[in-house]
Amino acid sequence: MQALETTALVAVIGAGAMGAGIAQVAAQAGHPVKLYDNRPGAAAQAVEGIDRQLGKLVEKGKLAAEQRSAIVARLQPVEAIETLADARLVIEAIVENLEVKHGLLRQLEEICAADCILASNTSSLSITTLAASLKHPERVIGMHFFNPAPIMALVEVVSGLATDPALAKALHATSKNWGKQPVYTRSTPGFIVNRVARPFYAESLRLLQEGAADCASLDALLRDAGGFRMGAFELTDLIGHDVNYAVTCSVFDAYYGDFRFQPSLIQKELVDAGRFGRKTGRGFYDYSEGAERPQAAELTSATDVASCVVEGDLGVAQPLVQRLKDAGVPVIQRAGSGLLRVGDAVLALSDGRLASQRAKEDGLRNLVLFDLALDYTKASRLAISWSADTTAEARDQAVALLQRAGLKVTALADLPGLAVLRTVAMLANEAADAVLQGVGSAADIDLAMRAGVNYPRGPLAWAEAIGIGYVLNTLDNLQRSYGEERYRPSLLLRRKHAEGSRFHD
Ligand code: NAI
């Protein structure tokens, strides 16, 4: 089965946010498109909305006026579902309700030709379940777009148990022709993105709950050190806590209460209070008029840095050394186990142990741990934490050193894995488990997280950059620290480390 020819009629059912966006994408790719909604007038309204959006692109010089009219001319709002009989592909984007979607698919079986593809844009329902009891379950497939569909590149092509593999290939190729970045996935809870992204929210929520720092500081760390577009609190405020919490609960329930997906009580409390985020004017942050946005906390030091000592190789954090040299700090290099010394302080990249625990176990006095950064040459902020016996002077010397490298320094309470390292380790862990369970390939999972939720790097490629062994050790330490199932390392990380093999060549 080939990609759909652009002459093939595409029908989109549901003219809400997603349906309208998908109809626009298909029409932009050259297909004639019929748009149907059971609310009278909704389809026509949606086409008018698309026309207005395209008008804005014309004003900005991003689209020719003739293209706009050609796209709109290909979009036909219809008021009767029977008029979809000649469609080659139907994509439904109606209300997220299994019975209603099931009813619609049954109705479509009666209306459409036997070889018409029936695709669902569902973000949480099982394609296997949706296809069950249909006469031709092999032609039912998920085509999961991201919001807003005309802008977000990712399409998860979701196969249920009965889906014809040739159909998945054809829709993958079709999505590519539509300018999208498709990935293959199996119908499992959350598919790729809504599963692998859970720790991004969960670890920040956990850090907040355990008093690591305030929301603004944690958000700033994920942005300025982690390279994420937004921190977890500002992002969930934008998504809506009602929606984000419901997704977490549905994935948690679907995996029979696997603790890795356990929802957060502090997010539940926001939902219970009606603080859904931006849309209600209040979430973790206050969006009412005149409300001040809290700033990230920052430690500063006026102490002079005469020189520092690098013992051994700092691993993924090695670029920090060049940054210090570039800032004119004399660096003395000697053999050792990856430590950075300044004055009385010993700095080390977190390995998932508490600072106080590591200080004791490794016999390190005045230990200051620092966090992972996506790119130590560019990060503008770094988190630190320190052991209980670290003196105020030593801490100040550590801050002064990092400041000299041009970094803002944000303190976290002594919690294992700091903020970015533990978030990235858990994202990689979830991604590895998804590969292990055949939810998607490593390449597709990394692509999905970059194209679907704008991660600066795929979690598995990131784990490789840090070192799979380092990530595994961090997770082992997190699990030991918490004594919780939640942090258990994926067998695939352990296997890859034992084999010395990689996710990507
Ligand atoms: P929406 O509420 O904006 O639009 C749904 C539309 O479907 C409404 O216009 C409604 O009148 C129509 N509709 C409801 N039942 C119908 C029926 N039986 N026949 C015909 N039309 C019907 O919802 P939205 O956000 O566009 O979501 C639609 C689907 O896309 C859901 O399955 C959702 O899970 C999925 N999705 C949503 C995303 C989002 O960020 N909003 C992202 C990816 C998927």
How is this structure best described in words?
- This protein has 505 residues and is of the alpha/beta class.
- The chain has 4 domains: 10-187, Rossmann fold, CATH 3.40.50.720; 195-280, Orthogonal Bundle (N-(1-d-carboxylethyl)-l-norvaline Dehydrogenase, domain 2), CATH 1.10.1040.50; 308-411, 2-Layer Sandwich (Transcription Regulator spoIIAA), CATH 3.30.750; 420-499, N-(1-d-carboxylethyl)-l-norvaline Dehydrogenase, domain 2.
- Helix content is 43%, strand content 14%.
- The chain has 20 helices and 15 strands.
- The chain has helices spanning 17-28, 42-59, 65-73, 98-111, 127-131, 165-177, 193-196, 198-209, 215-224, 232-239, 241-254, 265-272, 319-326, 355-362, 392-404, 420-436, 442-453, 459-466, 468-482, 491-499, and strands spanning 10-13, 33-36, 75-78, 89-92, 117-120, 140-145, 154-159, 181-186, 308-311, 331-334, 339-342, 345-349, 367-370, 381-386, 408-411.
- It has an 8-stranded mixed beta sheet, with helices on both faces.
- Helix 2 (42-59) runs antiparallel to helix 3 (65-73).
- The radius of gyration is 26 Å and the shape is elongated.
- 1,4-dihydronicotinamide adenine dinucleotide binds at residues 13-19, 37-39, 42, 93-96, 100, 104, 121-123, 145-147.
Using the 3D structure, state the CATH architecture of the largest domain.
Answer: 3-Layer(aba) Sandwich
Total DSSP helices: 20
Number of domains: 4
Specify the CATH class of the largest domain.
Alpha Beta
Radius of gyration over all CA atoms, rounded: 26 Å
| CATH-derived topology of the largest domain | Rossmann fold
Helical fraction: 40-55%
Widest sheet: strand ordering: 3-2-1-4-5-6-7-8
Pfam families: 3HCDH, 3HCDH_N, 3HCDH_RFF
Family: Belongs to the 3-hydroxyacyl-CoA dehydrogenase family.
GO molecular function: (3S)-3-hydroxyacyl-CoA dehydrogenase (NAD+) activity; 3-hydroxybutyryl-CoA dehydrogenase activity; NAD+ binding
Domain 3-hydroxyacyl-CoA dehydrogenase NAD binding: 10-186
